[in-house]
Amino acid sequence: MAAVFVLASPVSAQQNNGLITKASAYAAEETTKRLEDAIKALGFMVFGRLDHAAGAKSMGLSMPYSTVIVFGNPKLGTPNFIKNPPLAIDLPLKALVWEDKDGKAWLSYNSSKYLYETIYARHNQPFTAEMVGRLEAGLGKLTDEATKK
Question: How far apart are alpha carbons 90 and 69 in whole angstroms?
Fold first, then answer.
């Protein structure tokens, strides 16, 4: 997965097939910390970190920084999981902080339009344009806080 991102040539912020990628003004570790702080400041929870570089290292492999942050709000998500348990295979939300081959930090995440039109639709979960806009504004705010000075 990380190889796909390294080979891509992202600009400061771009969207490709529902994936938004933003350049970070900070190093990868600082971007991750800022992202987690922004998530918590919005009243969401950080459920975990998936450190792909550490996993690679444990197998004698080397790769640039690549950490997925899993986050959400149980108050909002739990009712949906109760109504439709398989929805939990695709949620909660995730964001990837990664470094390219030159050590530049990037942050990638799924757009709200992609989440609703693909993930929610996959599970026959209703959504509105208002829901898409509200989530996009929230994701934009927290990812900007993580990546911009």
Answer: 14
